[in-house]
Amino acid sequence: MGSMAIASIVSACLFISALFGMLLNALLPSHHLSQDSKHVLNVSMGLIATMSALVLGLLISSAKSSFDLENSGIQQGAANIIQLDRVLAHYGPETKEIRERFRRVVAFRIRLTWPEEGSTPKVTDTTPAMTRTAEGLEESIRKLSPHTDAQREFQSRALQLIQALLGKRWLLFVESLNPMPTAFLVVLVLWLCMLFVGFGLFAPRNATVLLAFVLCAVAISSALFLILEMNHPFYGLIKISSEPLRYALSQLGQ
User: Fold this and answer.
1) Which of 11, 26, 154, 226: disulfide with 91, CB 3.0–4.6 Å?
2) Contacts of 22 (CB under 8 A, 6+ apart)
3) Cα-to-chain-centroid distance, residue 241
4) What is the pLDDT of residue 221?
């Protein structure tokens, strides 16, 4: 289920919870709505509100940190791609075929991770053929026969860069498989629903109050939307840009 659908469902659940609280106000005996009862309920709601706010804040911070880490990895990968191509170019004409294969691999990975509009990205595609192709580049660099100290230095540097890129490739696969646990989301939404029931229990029945409940429900569900979107950084409305890698691709082979 998409982030927008989940956020919409959560928003509806919160608003219905507030309406349920207003319904309870009409059904409960008057002594259940005394000042003492209201005081205890306010303390309880304050506790739930504090817990919910802390959890939401931590989730947003964690999701943003994860998103920034992925974005930084893409930028570093783009820089490593350009450096690797330049190191191979300085090695000599013997690396022309390796550079051409490397360019095709980068172009294919970009198309796979950032496909055309409406397609699902395949950032976690780790088929044996793709793995062999990527690792084959390292093997080709390793098989080069340097004749000078400069070529040996370029070969060593190229091996370091290709190993860093391969390591980042696997790290990208692992980090992208990091969905929010369903149980965690359910418990958080349950807390928020309890909070809205308490809001509705002592709320007056008028259009202004209903509008306030709608706005609060939308505000909270939009926070969950941001969290869910940043947990999937390669698709959705909030996603990592492909521009660093596309720029790197444009520099290959020059």
Assistant:
1) 154
2) 200, 201, 203, 205
3) 12
4) 93
The whole domain housing 28 covers: 3-251
Query: pTM of the entire structure?
Result: 0.78
Instruction: Please list the alpha-helical segments (H only) found in the chain.
Output: 3-27, 35-91, 96-113, 128-142, 149-176, 182-201, 207-230, 243-251
**pLDDT at residue number 117:** 47
Residue 160, amino acid: Q
Cα separation, 102 vs 137, in Å, equals 7
Long-range contacts of 208-215 (CB under 8 A, 24+ apart): 213/14, 213/15, 213/18, 213/19, 214/15
Give me the residues of the chain with pLDDT under 50, please.
Answer: 117-118
Total domain count, the chain: 1
Residue 40 has which token pair? Answer: 């205890």
**Residues 195 and 45: beta-carbon distance below 8 Å:** yes
Give the single-character DSSP code of 179: P
pLDDT tens, position by position, 134-183: 778 888 888 888 889 999 999 999 999 998 888 877 666 666 556 667 78
Assess contact for 22 and 201: CB atoms under 8 A.
yes
HSE-CB of 88 using CA atoms within 13 angstroms: 30
Distance CA 224, CA 56 (A): 8
Task: Label residue 2 exposed, middle or buried (CB < 10 Å: 0-12, 13-18, 19+).
Answer: middle
